[in-house]
Design goal:
By secondary structure, this protein is an alpha/beta fold. It is about 40% helix and about 15% strand. The protein is built from twelve helices and twelve strands. The chain has a six-stranded parallel β-sheet with strand order 2-1-3-4-5-6, with helices on both faces. The chain has a six-stranded parallel β-sheet with strand order 9-8-7-10-11-12, with helices on both faces. The radius of gyration is 20 Å and the shape is globular. It starts with a strand and ends with a helix.
């Protein structure tokens, strides 16, 4: 079986794409990756980005073989469904909807786009990475078929750097309106003296008690920031899944985030790293106290769930 992976966010989703290609290859799939950078990475505008996407779809249509197409990010939102179906009529198309209701401003998620995407002639399959995303899609576009498949992962490693005597708590990733800034402010007044609190991500304003760095972290720096952390906090009030959380587990670093979220499916519903109510400190202290080998066990379980999920996806499209 051949699967063409289209990654229109070549910068932001580089690791996601590599993880997905690896898990599919391990499942016996022939993978053909196609990637191009988003405007923020390429230094071009949105129109150029959309044209590049359409050119990519047209080039795939010209091939003789019939591929399964997996689109890792909907460039046009729900308009991706009719557009890709119109261009790639002979292909099986699956579109990953990371955030069926975007957490940041985005085009193509309005009522008309959702209604057109739900028409029988243009329906493709949506891939979602959390039960919350699937539930949201079933409300907003109930006629679109959705497959729940775990966020792809690479095999985790044990992180011995976490044995450092200095406790470093970090928040990593872009600021969004659904970030729980109030919880971070409260946490800064509760942690033991000497703990280092740091935020690195684009769009953040200063948060009292935290060293805040308003900038984008490239992949290599992100890996260094994760591996040198005692715990990485996922401070959201609403979100569908967290690529940062997955990346942390891959690198042997525990996470702390809301119990009533997709993190339960990632680390296990009974994991003590999950935050009940507003008690972030208890979850964070539990994560900090977890030995590297035990973190790796949690990560290995998540990895195997992802592996099984993608094997099931392969069987579905086969």
């Amino acid at each position: 079986m051949r699967v063409t992976l289209i990654n229109p966010l070549g910068g932001a989703l580089a690791h996601y794409a590599a993880s997905l290609a690896a898990v599919l290859t391990d499942s016996g799939v022939v993978v053909e990756p196609v990637a191009f950078d988003e405007p923020s990475s390429a230094g071009t505008g949105r129109v150029h980005w959309v044209m590049k996407y359409l050119q990519t779809l047209l080039s795939i249509r010209s091939r003789h073989q019939t591929d399964v197409i997996l689109i890792m990010w909907p460039v046009l939102g729900f308009w991706d469904f009719p557009v890709t179906r119109a261009i790639l009529r002979r292909h099986t198309i699956h579109i990953v909807l990371h955030d069926p209701r975007p957490l940041v401003r985005a085009s193509g998620y309005g009522r008309l786009a959702r209604r057109i995407a739900s028409l029988r002639w243009c329906r493709s399959t949506a891939v979602v990475h959390s039960a919350a995303a699937g539930a949201t899609l079933s409300v907003d576009a109930p006629r679109i078929t959705a497959l729940l498949v775990p966020h792809p992962m690479v095999k985790p490693v044990e992180n011995v750097m976490r044995r450092s005597p200095t406790v470093t708590v970090r928040v990593l990733g872009q600021y969004k309106a659904d970030r729980d800034v109030a919880a971070l402010q409260r946490l800064a007044t509760e942690v033991p003296h000497g703990w280092q609190l740091e935020i690195v991500g684009r769009g953040w304003n200063p948060v009292p008690g935290w060293h805040t760095h308003n900038r984008f972290a490239l992949e290599r720096e992100l890996a260094d920031l994760i591996t040198s952390s005692s715990v990485v906090v996922i401070p959201y009030r609403r979100f569908f899944q967290s690529g940062v959380a997955v990346r942390c587990l891959e690198l042997g670093v525990p996470i702390a985030g809301p119990r009533q979220s997709s993190l339960g499916a990632l680390v296990g519903e009974d994991c003590s790293w999950l935050v009940s109510g507003d008690d972030w400190l208890t979850a964070i202290m539990s994560a900090v106290a977890t030995e590297p080998a035990a973190v790796c066990q949690v990560a290995e379980a998540a990895y195997h769930r992802a592996e099984l999920g993608w094997r099931a996806w392969v069987a579905t499209i086969g």
